[in-house]
Amino acid sequence: MFSENYAASSWCLDELVKIMECRKTFQQTVLPIFYDIVPFDVQAQNGSFTEAFAKHEERFKEGSDGKVKKWRAALTEAANLDEAKLIEKIVEEVGNILDLEHLSVANHPIGLDDRVQELSTLLGMESNNNDVCIVVVWGISGIGKTTIAKKLNNLIHRKFDGSSFLADVRETWKLPNGLTIDRDYFGSGSKIVITTRDLSSLNIEVDKIYTPKELDKDKSPQLFSWHAFREDHPKENYVELSNQTVHYARGLPLALEILGSFLFPIRSIPEWESAIEKLKKIPHNGIQAKLKISFDSLSNEVQDLFLDIACFFAGMNRDFTIKILKGCKLYPEIGFKILVNRCLIKYGPYNELVMHDMLRDIGREIVKTKSNDELERRSRLWLNSLEELLLNDYIRLVEVDESIGCLDKLVVLDMTNCRKLEQLSSSISMLKSLEYLDLSGCSKLRKLDAFKRSPLKSLYTTLSSWALQTKNTSSIGLPLQGSSCLKKLKLAYCNLSHLPIEIGSLISLTHVDLTGNNLCTLLDSICNLTCLQELKMVGCNLSNLPSEMERLISLIYLDIGGNNLCTLPNSIYNLTCLQRLEMAGCNICLVKLEG
């Protein structure tokens, strides 16, 4: 900073020489400021500089390695720097630091720069196009629309002659007919950014629409961790709990911030577990209030449609849902369009209805709240927590709807004596908790393709003679292959003539009941079942048993009564875990019993 008395100080002049050397050597930026003095006086050492240098010449007239000459050269060089550009840069830099209009953005702007850059590109900030450009930032509440707009405003507003940021336009100005903008009111090159949850509220022609995506699997944990742990990663022993919470938030920045801040004061793992379970049932008030704004703005009919989707149809095929709702004398197509425009639903790659988990939970919470949480007074009942579904003796049941696949907590499914049931929906393979399935008496059942590559963990399949009357496992397509987690298999009185060779691949089986079939022989592959504890083959017309029975190392109970067996393989004597052996009605002479 040059002032009237600057040249009188030899220390300042030495410092200036050093500054200009650093500019040449290290390409450092030098920004000269002239305070109460014109640049020409500094450049030519006129005015007060003339008197100061006369004294310096007198003082250093004998040598000093040309000190005065270096001072003059440094002053001239500094004063010759492009003043206009330098002043403009100073104003910009100082303005950015001291800007009173600086808009506050997120304390932890994880993923924000990428989104701002995307928006900036859509606005054409790097192009020379001078047209007025209007870009709409459209998305669900909490996705970060306003934060993105504020950050971009902070970065670019000084590049324009004027700028303005108007917050909460609809709520503040109460626009009954939506937002209208006349491009003619704006100067050449103007950039206009509008944020909205509802495209239908805009009565203007926009150039482009920017839809921010949810944070990805890398950035979501970072944002959550900054709020929950005050660092960019979870603390040790909290990784799994953090992953659960991040998964629930589904990349929604608002949810990640609120949930992280909510969990920050909680320090014990059991308290975290309890808090997370509660959040899954009852959404956090801060999140619920924000997301519910869009719901409250809907008409009664569309609110009902939203609640129907939240309770029943989220994740289901759009066309199927329309068919169901039309059957209820409802007309959902217009409502779907409104919900899509307000980012409350979207369509997935397979035309399924996609609703954010938190919107779904808020919808269900609205239903519960309206009924004072009394089950019998609810307008809608959803069965996602159902553990037992008993349809036994439901003789008019012909087909099981694919929506049964949504019952992800179902453990028991009993369809005994459903005599008109012809096929099972493939969605049954989605029942990851199912342990017991009873199809006894389903006399018209023809295919069980639902269990191919099934993820079922512990399936107890009961098939009676009615279910497979005069059929074998091949003719009805019993898909044993791929069911490696199957533990209990009952095929009693099914009139089977043989077993599929794949039975040997069911290595988790502990109980097998083949009673009352006409097998004649037993496949050697059954000896692969090293976990088998109980094997019942009563009245199967068997004439011999596999020679490698000793491989059934876990077998405790074996019932082979009522067969045509005359001898037993020697290997049966090596079943060291066998505690009970029944052979009633067999013509077997035991010549060797040891152990």
Helix content percent band: 25-40%
Strand proportion, as a percent range, falls in: 5-15%
CA(first)-CA(last) distance: 105 Å
User: What structural class do the secondary elements suggest?
Assistant: alpha/beta
Report on the architecture of this protein.
The chain has 595 residues and is α/β, with parallel strands linked by helices. The protein has helices at 10-26, 39-44, 48-59, 67-79, 83-98, 112-123, 145-156, 169-173, 219-228, 239-249, 253-263, 269-281, 285-296, 300-313, 318-327, 332-341, 357-370, and strands at 133-138, 191-196, 208-210, 346-347, 353-354, 388-390, 412-414, 436-438, 460-462, 488-490, 511-513, 534-536, 557-559, 580-582. The model is unreliable at 447-483 (pLDDT under 50). Helix 1 (10-26) crosses helix 4 (67-79), helix 9 packs parallel to helix 11 and helix 14 (300-313) packs across helix 17 (357-370). The chain has a nine-stranded parallel beta sheet, with no helix packed on it. The protein has a three-stranded parallel beta sheet with strand order 2-1-3, covered by helices on one side. The longest helix has 17 residues, at 10-26. It contains 17 helices and 14 strands. Among the domains are: 6-97, Rossmann fold, CATH 3.40.50.10140; 112-210; 219-281; 287-377, Orthogonal Bundle (Arc Repressor Mutant, subunit A). Strand 4 and strand 5 (353-354) form a beta hairpin. It starts with 9 loop residues before the first helix and ends in a 13-residue tail after the last strand. Helices cover 33% and strands 8% of the residues.
